[in-house]
Amino acid sequence: MNYIKDLLADLGIKDSTAVYMATIILIIGVGALTILANYVTKKIVLKIVSSYIRNKRFQWGSYIMERKVIQKLSHIIPALIIYSFSYSFPEYQRLIEQGVVIYLIIVALLILDALLNAVNDIYTTFEISKSRPIRGYIQVVKIFIFIIGAILVISRVIGESPLILLSGIGAMSAVMLLIFKDSLLGLVAGVQLTSNDMVRVGDWIEMPKYGADGNITDISLNTVKVQNWDKTITTIPTYALISDSFKNWRGMQISGGRRIKRSVFIDMSSVGFCSPDMIEKFKKIQYLRDYVQEKEEEIQAYNRENDIDRSVVVNGRAMTNIGVFRAYVMRYLQHHPNIHQDMTLIVRQLAPGETGLPLEIYAFTNDIDWSVYERVQSDIFDHILAVAPEFGLRVFQNPSGYDMKSMLRAEVNGQPDSRY
């Protein structure tokens, strides 16, 4: 400043005018220098660093560049230049230094925020991130960093030591706990979810209470985002996964099989013993040929050994159409290319009720894809429903308007309906 004033005085400018002109010239010079430093840093240094990272193909470097960590670092250079010239303005030196320090604190917070985001991005590239997400922990670290940054900024503004503000926080602990209640609950829940491996990113969960039925796309400190099958997004509080029950379909996805558990209801009035003609017909069915022959020989040997009079059909043992049908369905599933043969496969009868005799299929497809699973399940029951009449069985169905209309038409014509 004195050097510039001396130069202006040598040019014949009055002292009072020289002071103002020297101040303006110095401000313009410092401003030009900071602009030049900012330009050099961003346009030259950053380009060199970026090209070096791309050429070396550092995976972590690309994430740092995406989060603009290095770009934010470039804001420090102009601030340091202004700070170094603050002594040239003795009347405003303290104010300038204080402003620069506050600015540097804010820039440091932004840099740390971007760096933590980059760390999370890098971590998500590893497979362990699905079972051990760290986003919630990073958010907790951010909260503490921003709290400390706010304390430092306030202490610089009021000109007091940060320790004075920290001592006052003890009295505000109850208020802080109330404000950050959800964050603290989310932190505790996140630790439990991670340590117990309860959910991972990509898991299919079902939580009817919150209308969630889909894949987890994100696990954060306060919320878990679920993309439902209709492409809507459901947001669930993280601690709700600890306090409430939910269904995780990960076990099904890992096993490689998806369960089919559905029943066909048989009209019990159509169940009966097999006639000789029916047995001969069943012997021509590919899946039943060996079964019917073995079963027929077994029954004949039993009745012969026990000297049973077969002139009455209820005496001794005999094949029934429902038993043969159950054996056929079992063998049909055992030969089905889309049924997982290494997992549970059962065809069983359940307790009969007002809707008939339930014949339940309990099996697993060897493809967990939803569309494939539904197609395989539909194909199986299409076949079962279509083949049931070949065994003399009727699938139960409550009378419909069509049934009533057919009965009335048969009554008018004086002929019984062949279906009844």
Helix and strand layout, with pairings?
Layout: H1 2-10, H2 15-56, H3 59-66, H4 69-73, H5 76-84, H6 93-123, H7 128-131, H8 135-158, H9 162-169, H10 173-179, H11 181-195, E1 204-207, E2 212-219, E3 223-228, E4 233-237, H12 240-243, E5 247-248, H13 250-255, E6 258-266, H14 276-282, H15 289-305, H16 321-334, E7 346-349, E8 357-365, H17 370-387, H18 401-413
Antiparallel strand pairs: 1-2, 1-5, 2-3, 3-4, 6-8, 7-8
Transmembrane segments: 20-40, 73-89, 101-119, 140-158, 164-180
Family: Belongs to the MscS (TC 1.A.23) family.
Organism: Paenibacillus oenotherae
Protein described:
The chain has 420 residues and is an alpha+beta fold. It folds into 4 domains: 2-191, no CATH class; 194-253, Roll (SH3 type barrels), CATH 2.30.30.60; 256-272 and 320-420, Alpha-Beta Plaits, CATH 3.30.70.100; 274-318, no CATH class. Helix content is 57%, strand content 11%. It contains 18 helices and 8 strands. The chain has helices at 2-10, 15-56, 59-66, 69-73, 76-84, 93-123, 128-131, 135-158, 162-169, 173-179, 181-195, 240-243, 250-255, 276-282, 289-305, 321-334, 370-387, 401-413, and strands at 204-207, 212-219, 223-228, 233-237, 247-248, 258-266, 346-349, 357-365. It has a 5-stranded antiparallel beta sheet with strand order 4-3-2-1-5. Strands 6-8-7 form a 3-stranded antiparallel beta sheet. Helix 2 packs antiparallel against helix 5 and helix 3 (59-66) crosses helix 6. It is rod-shaped. Its main location: membrane.
